[in-house]
Amino acid sequence: MTERIHSFYEALTEDYHLIFEDWERTIERQAKVLGALLEAEAPAHPLKILDCACGIGTQSIGFAAMGHQVVASDLSRKAVNRAQREAQSRSLPISFRVSDMTSLREVPESGFDAVAAIDNALPHLSAVQLRQAVMAMASKLKPRGIFIASIRDYDQIMREKPTAQPPAFHGSQASRRIIHQIWDWIEDDRYVLHLYITTHSGRGWKTRHIVSEYRCLLRGELSSVLTDAGFAEVRWLMPAESGFYQPLVLARLSASV
Ligand SMILES: C[S@@+](CC[C@H](N)C(=O)[O-])C[C@H]1O[C@@H](n2cnc3c(N)ncnc32)[C@H](O)[C@@H]1O
Q1: Same domain, yes or no, for 228 and 174?
Q2: Whose CA is closest to atom 13 on ligand 1?
Q3: Residues 92, 199: one domain?
Q4: I want to staple 181 with a disulfide (CB 3.0 to 4.6 A). Which of 165, 225, 252, 253 is the partner?
Protein backbone atom coordinates (compact mmCIF):
# COMPACT_ATOMS: atom_id res chain seq x y z
CA MET A 1 0.00 0.00 0.00
CA THR A 2 2.90 2.40 0.77
CA GLU A 3 3.92 2.65 -2.92
CA ARG A 4 0.36 3.58 -3.98
CA ILE A 5 0.19 6.26 -1.25
CA HIS A 6 3.60 7.59 -2.20
CA SER A 7 2.73 7.95 -5.90
CA PHE A 8 -0.65 9.52 -5.07
CA TYR A 9 0.95 12.36 -3.11
CA GLU A 10 3.83 12.76 -5.54
CA ALA A 11 1.28 13.19 -8.36
CA LEU A 12 -0.92 15.51 -6.30
CA THR A 13 1.76 17.81 -4.89
CA GLU A 14 1.63 20.74 -7.32
CA ASP A 15 -2.21 20.80 -7.30
CA TYR A 16 -2.72 20.04 -3.60
CA HIS A 17 -3.72 23.61 -2.68
CA LEU A 18 -6.54 23.48 -5.25
CA ILE A 19 -8.46 21.09 -3.01
CA PHE A 20 -9.10 23.99 -0.65
CA GLU A 21 -11.26 27.01 -1.38
CA ASP A 22 -8.40 29.21 -0.12
CA TRP A 23 -5.25 27.41 1.07
CA GLU A 24 -3.80 30.51 2.79
CA ARG A 25 -6.95 30.92 4.88
CA THR A 26 -6.94 27.19 5.66
CA ILE A 27 -3.37 27.48 6.97
CA GLU A 28 -4.37 30.35 9.26
CA ARG A 29 -7.64 28.76 10.41
CA GLN A 30 -6.02 25.40 11.22
CA ALA A 31 -3.08 27.01 13.04
CA LYS A 32 -5.50 28.97 15.19
CA VAL A 33 -7.36 25.84 16.35
CA LEU A 34 -4.42 23.41 16.53
CA GLY A 35 -1.97 25.97 17.93
CA ALA A 36 -4.38 26.91 20.71
CA LEU A 37 -4.88 23.25 21.64
CA LEU A 38 -1.14 22.56 21.76
CA GLU A 39 -0.38 25.74 23.69
CA ALA A 40 -3.03 24.79 26.27
CA GLU A 41 -1.46 21.34 26.69
CA ALA A 42 2.22 22.37 26.67
CA PRO A 43 2.67 25.89 27.96
CA ALA A 44 6.28 26.47 26.73
CA HIS A 45 6.87 29.01 23.96
CA PRO A 46 8.12 28.39 21.39
CA LEU A 47 6.96 24.78 21.23
CA LYS A 48 9.21 22.28 19.51
CA ILE A 49 6.84 20.53 17.07
CA LEU A 50 7.39 17.58 14.72
CA ASP A 51 4.83 17.50 11.88
CA CYS A 52 5.44 13.98 10.57
CA ALA A 53 2.91 14.04 7.68
CA CYS A 54 3.55 17.62 6.60
CA GLY A 55 2.48 17.31 2.98
CA ILE A 56 2.89 20.70 1.32
CA GLY A 57 3.06 22.35 4.74
CA THR A 58 -0.52 23.24 5.70
CA GLN A 59 0.12 22.89 9.44
CA SER A 60 3.92 23.34 9.54
CA ILE A 61 3.66 26.77 7.96
CA GLY A 62 0.89 27.82 10.34
CA PHE A 63 2.77 26.59 13.42
CA ALA A 64 6.00 28.29 12.32
CA ALA A 65 4.12 31.53 11.59
CA MET A 66 2.94 31.40 15.22
CA GLY A 67 6.59 31.39 16.28
CA HIS A 68 6.94 27.69 17.04
CA GLN A 69 10.07 25.72 16.18
CA VAL A 70 9.02 23.19 13.53
CA VAL A 71 10.59 20.09 12.01
CA ALA A 72 8.45 18.81 9.14
CA SER A 73 8.69 15.40 7.49
CA ASP A 74 6.73 13.36 4.97
CA LEU A 75 6.99 10.19 2.90
CA SER A 76 6.75 12.18 -0.34
CA ARG A 77 9.90 13.97 -1.44
CA LYS A 78 7.92 16.12 -3.89
CA ALA A 79 5.57 17.25 -1.11
CA VAL A 80 8.53 18.05 1.14
CA ASN A 81 10.21 20.02 -1.67
CA ARG A 82 7.06 22.07 -2.21
CA ALA A 83 6.59 22.64 1.54
CA GLN A 84 10.19 23.83 1.70
CA ARG A 85 9.54 26.27 -1.17
CA GLU A 86 6.39 27.55 0.53
CA ALA A 87 8.25 28.04 3.83
CA GLN A 88 11.13 29.84 2.12
CA SER A 89 8.77 32.19 0.28
CA ARG A 90 7.30 33.16 3.68
CA SER A 91 10.77 33.37 5.34
CA LEU A 92 9.81 30.71 7.86
CA PRO A 93 12.70 28.70 9.37
CA ILE A 94 11.32 25.12 9.17
CA SER A 95 13.66 22.09 8.98
CA PHE A 96 12.47 19.53 6.42
CA ARG A 97 13.12 15.79 6.13
CA VAL A 98 11.85 13.01 3.87
CA SER A 99 10.87 10.23 6.25
CA ASP A 100 8.35 7.43 6.62
CA MET A 101 6.54 7.97 9.89
CA THR A 102 6.71 4.27 10.66
CA SER A 103 10.38 4.75 11.52
CA LEU A 104 11.19 8.50 11.43
CA ARG A 105 14.76 7.30 10.89
CA GLU A 106 15.69 10.39 8.86
CA VAL A 107 14.61 12.75 11.65
CA PRO A 108 17.66 13.07 13.90
CA GLU A 109 16.00 15.51 16.30
CA SER A 110 14.12 14.36 19.40
CA GLY A 111 12.74 15.84 22.62
CA PHE A 112 9.72 17.41 20.87
CA ASP A 113 6.92 19.00 22.89
CA ALA A 114 4.40 17.78 20.31
CA VAL A 115 4.15 15.50 17.31
CA ALA A 116 1.39 15.99 14.74
CA ALA A 117 -0.14 13.93 11.90
CA ILE A 118 -3.04 15.99 10.59
CA ASP A 119 -5.63 15.42 7.87
CA ASN A 120 -6.19 11.71 7.67
CA ALA A 121 -2.59 10.59 7.19
CA LEU A 122 -2.81 7.68 9.68
CA PRO A 123 -5.54 5.77 7.78
CA HIS A 124 -3.02 5.23 4.98
CA LEU A 125 -1.23 2.80 7.33
CA SER A 126 -1.93 -0.88 7.96
CA ALA A 127 -2.61 -1.94 11.54
CA VAL A 128 1.03 -3.03 11.93
CA GLN A 129 2.37 0.19 10.38
CA LEU A 130 0.11 2.26 12.64
CA ARG A 131 1.67 0.65 15.72
CA GLN A 132 5.17 1.27 14.32
CA ALA A 133 4.30 4.91 13.56
CA VAL A 134 2.89 5.61 17.01
CA MET A 135 5.97 4.03 18.61
CA ALA A 136 8.26 6.11 16.35
CA MET A 137 6.37 9.28 17.27
CA ALA A 138 6.55 8.43 20.97
CA SER A 139 10.33 8.01 20.62
CA LYS A 140 10.58 11.59 19.31
CA LEU A 141 8.67 13.18 22.20
CA LYS A 142 9.97 14.41 25.50
CA PRO A 143 8.33 12.86 28.59
CA ARG A 144 4.74 14.18 28.85
CA GLY A 145 4.94 15.35 25.23
CA ILE A 146 1.73 15.66 23.22
CA PHE A 147 0.49 13.56 20.29
CA ILE A 148 -2.10 15.20 18.04
CA ALA A 149 -3.72 13.74 14.94
CA SER A 150 -6.88 14.17 12.91
CA ILE A 151 -8.70 11.50 10.93
CA ARG A 152 -12.01 11.28 9.12
CA ASP A 153 -14.96 10.09 11.17
CA TYR A 154 -14.55 6.43 10.23
CA ASP A 155 -16.89 5.28 13.00
CA GLN A 156 -19.68 6.94 11.01
CA ILE A 157 -18.23 6.12 7.57
CA MET A 158 -18.15 2.39 8.43
CA ARG A 159 -21.87 2.55 9.17
CA GLU A 160 -22.77 4.46 6.00
CA LYS A 161 -20.19 3.18 3.43
CA PRO A 162 -20.45 6.24 1.17
CA THR A 163 -19.45 5.75 -2.47
CA ALA A 164 -18.79 9.40 -3.31
CA GLN A 165 -17.98 12.78 -1.85
CA PRO A 166 -20.15 15.46 -3.42
CA PRO A 167 -18.41 17.98 -5.67
CA ALA A 168 -16.98 21.15 -4.20
CA PHE A 169 -16.94 24.17 -6.51
CA HIS A 170 -14.06 26.53 -5.76
CA GLY A 171 -12.65 29.68 -7.19
CA SER A 172 -13.93 32.55 -9.24
CA GLN A 173 -13.93 33.23 -12.98
CA ALA A 174 -10.14 33.11 -13.38
CA SER A 175 -9.49 29.88 -11.43
CA ARG A 176 -12.69 27.85 -11.33
CA ARG A 177 -12.40 24.23 -10.28
CA ILE A 178 -14.47 21.25 -9.21
CA ILE A 179 -13.15 18.69 -6.71
CA HIS A 180 -14.92 15.39 -6.20
CA GLN A 181 -14.20 11.84 -5.06
CA ILE A 182 -15.49 8.35 -5.84
CA TRP A 183 -14.90 5.67 -3.21
CA ASP A 184 -14.73 2.01 -4.34
CA TRP A 185 -15.03 -0.32 -1.36
CA ILE A 186 -12.59 -3.21 -1.83
CA GLU A 187 -13.01 -4.73 1.63
CA ASP A 188 -15.32 -4.16 4.57
CA ASP A 189 -12.95 -1.56 6.02
CA ARG A 190 -10.90 -0.50 3.00
CA TYR A 191 -11.63 1.65 -0.05
CA VAL A 192 -9.89 2.98 -3.13
CA LEU A 193 -10.30 6.73 -3.43
CA HIS A 194 -10.54 8.29 -6.89
CA LEU A 195 -9.85 12.00 -6.66
CA TYR A 196 -10.92 14.18 -9.60
CA ILE A 197 -9.62 17.73 -9.91
CA THR A 198 -11.33 19.55 -12.76
CA THR A 199 -9.88 22.95 -13.56
CA HIS A 200 -10.97 25.65 -15.97
CA SER A 201 -8.52 27.56 -18.11
CA GLY A 202 -8.70 29.62 -21.28
CA ARG A 203 -8.62 26.33 -23.23
CA GLY A 204 -11.64 24.82 -21.46
CA TRP A 205 -12.04 22.23 -18.70
CA LYS A 206 -9.40 19.63 -17.84
CA THR A 207 -9.76 16.75 -15.35
CA ARG A 208 -6.98 15.04 -13.43
CA HIS A 209 -7.72 11.65 -11.86
CA ILE A 210 -5.50 10.37 -9.04
CA VAL A 211 -5.98 7.16 -7.05
CA SER A 212 -5.21 6.33 -3.43
CA GLU A 213 -6.22 3.82 -0.78
CA TYR A 214 -7.47 4.13 2.79
CA ARG A 215 -8.30 1.85 5.68
CA CYS A 216 -11.15 2.80 8.00
CA LEU A 217 -9.33 3.59 11.23
CA LEU A 218 -11.79 3.53 14.09
CA ARG A 219 -11.31 5.79 17.09
CA GLY A 220 -11.21 2.78 19.43
CA GLU A 221 -8.30 1.21 17.52
CA LEU A 222 -6.21 4.38 17.53
CA SER A 223 -6.96 4.98 21.22
CA SER A 224 -5.74 1.51 22.18
CA VAL A 225 -2.63 1.74 19.99
CA LEU A 226 -1.80 5.01 21.76
CA THR A 227 -2.34 3.48 25.18
CA ASP A 228 -0.20 0.44 24.30
CA ALA A 229 2.63 2.77 23.17
CA GLY A 230 2.72 4.51 26.55
CA PHE A 231 0.32 7.41 25.99
CA ALA A 232 -2.23 8.47 28.60
CA GLU A 233 -5.01 11.06 28.74
CA VAL A 234 -6.22 9.99 25.27
CA ARG A 235 -9.12 12.22 24.30
CA TRP A 236 -11.12 12.83 21.17
CA LEU A 237 -12.47 16.21 20.18
CA MET A 238 -15.28 16.13 17.67
CA PRO A 239 -15.70 19.02 15.20
CA ALA A 240 -18.59 20.61 17.11
CA GLU A 241 -16.34 20.94 20.15
CA SER A 242 -12.98 21.80 18.54
CA GLY A 243 -14.05 23.84 15.53
CA PHE A 244 -11.73 21.60 13.43
CA TYR A 245 -13.24 19.87 10.39
CA GLN A 246 -12.18 16.32 11.39
CA PRO A 247 -12.20 14.46 14.71
CA LEU A 248 -8.98 15.22 16.56
CA VAL A 249 -7.17 13.01 19.04
CA LEU A 250 -4.80 14.27 21.70
CA ALA A 251 -2.71 12.12 24.04
CA ARG A 252 0.11 12.69 26.48
CA LEU A 253 3.20 10.50 26.65
CA SER A 254 3.66 9.07 30.12
CA ALA A 255 6.49 10.58 32.16
CA SER A 256 8.22 7.21 32.55
CA VAL A 257 8.35 5.97 28.90
C1 LIG B 1 -3.92 14.18 3.32
S2 LIG B 1 -2.22 14.55 3.34
C3 LIG B 1 -2.10 15.76 4.63
C4 LIG B 1 -0.87 16.59 4.54
C5 LIG B 1 -0.83 17.78 5.49
N6 LIG B 1 -0.85 17.35 6.87
C7 LIG B 1 -1.98 18.70 5.18
O8 LIG B 1 -2.96 18.75 5.94
O9 LIG B 1 -1.92 19.38 4.15
C10 LIG B 1 -1.51 13.12 4.11
C11 LIG B 1 0.01 13.12 4.06
O12 LIG B 1 0.47 11.97 4.76
C13 LIG B 1 1.64 11.55 4.11
N14 LIG B 1 1.93 10.15 4.45
C15 LIG B 1 1.20 9.05 4.14
N16 LIG B 1 1.81 7.95 4.61
C17 LIG B 1 2.95 8.37 5.22
C18 LIG B 1 4.00 7.71 5.90
N19 LIG B 1 4.01 6.39 6.04
N20 LIG B 1 5.00 8.47 6.43
C21 LIG B 1 5.00 9.81 6.29
N22 LIG B 1 4.03 10.50 5.64
C23 LIG B 1 3.01 9.78 5.12
C24 LIG B 1 1.37 11.76 2.64
O25 LIG B 1 2.55 11.77 1.85
C26 LIG B 1 0.62 13.10 2.69
O27 LIG B 1 1.48 14.18 2.50
Answers
A1: no
A2: 53
A3: no
A4: 165
3's CB contacts (< 8 A; 6+ apart) are none
Q: Which residues pair with 185 in a beta bridge?
A: 191
Q: What pLDDT, in 10s, does the model give residues 73-126? A: 999 999 999 999 999 999 999 999 999 999 999 999 999 999 999 999 999 999
Q: What is the pLDDT of residues 184-230, one digit of tens each?
A: 999 999 999 999 999 998 788 999 999 999 999 999 999 999 999 99
Secondary structure, 3-state, 32-50: HHHHHHHHHHCCCCCCEEE
Instruction: Read off the CATH number of the domain in which 197 is found.
Output: 2.20.25
Domain residues for the domain of 233 are: 2-153+218-253
Bin 98: left if φ > 0, else alpha if -120 < ψ < 50, else beta.
beta
The DSSP H or E segment spanning 24 is helix 23-41
Q: Both 59 and 26 in a single domain?
A: yes
Number of domains in the chain: 2
Same domain, 130 and 34: yes
Q: Give SS3 for 205.
A: strand
Q: Is residue 6's pLDDT more than 90?
A: no
In this structure, the answer to whether residues 115 and 180 fall within a common structural domain is no
* 17-31, 79-93, 167-181: least confident range: 167-181
For ligand 1, what atom is nearest to the CA of residue 79? 27
- Which residues approach ligand 1 with their CB closer than 6 A? 5, 9, 53-56, 58-59, 74-76, 79, 100-102, 118-121, 124
Distance (angstroms) between ligand 1 centre and the Cα of 203 equals 32
Nearest to 230 by CA among 170, 125, 106, 145: 145
pTM above 0.70? yes
